[in-house]
From TrEMBL:
Keywords, sorted A to Z: Receptor
Any one Pfam family match given in the protein's UniProt record, by short name: SIR2_2
Residue ranges constituting the TIR domain according to the UniProt record: 299-435
Protein name: Toll/interleukin-1 receptor domain-containing protein
């Protein structure tokens, strides 16, 4: 198995998931079907000699329903669709244990939205404990409003219909064209879903067959100009080259379950299950061992830098600004998570560095406020450990709605953000002076 995804890529994927900027799309080939290379071929086997099915198109993964009497065409089509739905249900039931295992892995990711190309509802509903919504090509989405998207109660949305409403399914050529016309026309996806798709920065496709031409179209509709990662170990090399070049996506040779296993392994506690992510985290006391290496008056003040990685450029400017205190006077030492080396445990490294720090500097922006890990893990722990916390306002945002920030002196002073300064050098110089003053205070407090 090619382990080509470097540490920094896991880092960005994890951050996008934490910040609800990553959408996972689950396809029917997310598991292996005993004796069959795909879900479609397993279903086709269930329909051998079925009087309603005239042909199965393996490449396109679509069925053609046999119409023997034009007068009864609609009734025969409906009966054929019901037979296909029942065959799909049998294949799913035969592979229920494998699907359950995948659902358990997905449950560990704090995602607010999972798009599914599997028309089955019961597995996700039972294990993720959330109702499953679905797109119906023949009904207007204006009649449907999704609940607010939240990682505490994720929305699973079946984009190709549901077995519970067989007429909503997309598995014949007629269905496919109705679907394409509906999704491009007035019958759009629910507004909440459109907003989530637009704001996402990364899409991860698990078990999706990109050989199908209409999947190319669906990818363009859902994830145009986004970071797209396709997880599939079964696509032939010739098809892989075409797909990667034509659709501008990155492809990895993992099985979906192996990828999810590795993703949760690399998290090392960074991704918490839904029950671990709650507002209580911010106020609950946390028992952390006391460091035995107590600083004296001449020891540099250790600073823990908390920030959203999309604000990387601000972080670099801050480090340059504070370099005299780091390199010349040796007043401070700054630690930030880019210093974690490959193979190190995320959670352990962050916990240790935060424990040893006397000051946390937060680079505050909308991205920072939207990061559950920054707010509910790093800042919460710093406050519970009674560290000094210094917010640096990068851009205008709703920081006053966060009591732990609103109760502290934010810099630059007068609630000005760095980008509000005509001369940003002036803003960074004021930050330098404030940090220098606070470092002096911290040293004076030492026993």
């Amino acid at each position: 198995m090619d382990d080509s995804l470097v540490f920094e890529d896991w880092d960005l994927i994890i951050e996008d998931i934490q910040n609800q900027k990553c959408i996972v799309i689950v396809g029917p080939d997310i598991i292996e079907y005993d004796g069959y290379p795909s879900f479609f071929e397993a279903v086709s086997n269930e329909l051998i000699d079925n009087k309603y099915i005239s042909q199965s198109f393996v490449e396109e993964q679509l069925f053609q329903i046999k119409i023997s009497n034009p007068v009864r065409a609609k009734a025969e089509k409906n009966d054929g669709i019901r037979h296909i739905a029942k065959a799909m249900q049998r294949v799913i039931e035969q592979n229920q244990t494998k699907l359950d295992a995948i659902a358990e892995l997905l449950k560990k990711l704090p995602s607010q939205l999972i798009l599914s190309l599997i028309p089955e509802e019961a597995t996700f509903s039972r294990i993720l404990q959330t109702p499953v919504r679905y797109y119906h090509k023949n009904k207007t989405s204006e009649k449907e409003a999704l609940p607010p998207l939240s990682p505490d109660s994720p929305t699973v949305y079946n984009i190709l219909g549901s077995l519970s409403q067989s007429e909503s399914l997309v598995f014949t050529y007629d269905d496919l064209f109705e679907y394409i016309f509906s999704i491009l026309g007035d019958n759009r996806l629910p507004q909440e879903l459109q907003i989530a798709l637009k704001s996402a920065e990364r899409f991860i496709f698990l078990g999706v067959n990109f050989n199908k031409w209409y999947m190319h179209l669906l990818l363009k509709l859902l994830a145009s100009d986004k970071n797209v990662l396709a997880i599939d170990a079964h696509i032939p090399e010739a098809s892989r080259t075409f797909i990667m070049n034509r659709l501008s996506l990155e492809m990895m040779d993992y099985t979906p379950s192996a990828f999810l296993d590795k993703l949760t392994c690399n998290c090392h506690g960074a991704l918490k299950s839904k029950e671990d992510i709650s507002p209580k985290t911010i106020v609950q006391p946390i028992n952390v061992p006391v460091s035995v290496n107590k600083p004296n008056k001449n020891t540099p003040v250790r600073i823990f830098l908390s920030y959203a990685h999309v604000d990387e450029e601000f972080k670099k400017e801050l480090l340059i600004t504070l370099s005299p205190l780091i390199n010349q006077s040796k007043e401070i030492e700054i630690w930030e998570d880019r210093q974690i080396v490959a193979g190190q445990e995320w959670g352990k490294a962050i916990t240790t560095e935060l424990q040893d720090a006397e000051l946390m500097i937060c680079l505050v922006s909308r991205n920072f406020l939207n990061s559950k890990y920054c707010i509910e893990q790093e800042v919460a722990n710093a406050i519970n450990q009674q560290k000094h916390v210094l917010p640096v306002l990068l851009k205008s945002c709703a920081w006053k709605d966060f009591p732990f920030l609103a109760s502290r002196q934010v810099i630059p002073r007068d609630n000005n953000s760095i980008i509000s300064f005509k001369d940003q050098d002036e803003a960074y110089q004021s930050i330098y002076e404030e940090v220098k003053r606070l470092v002096t205070l911290i040293k004076s407090e030492r026993a």
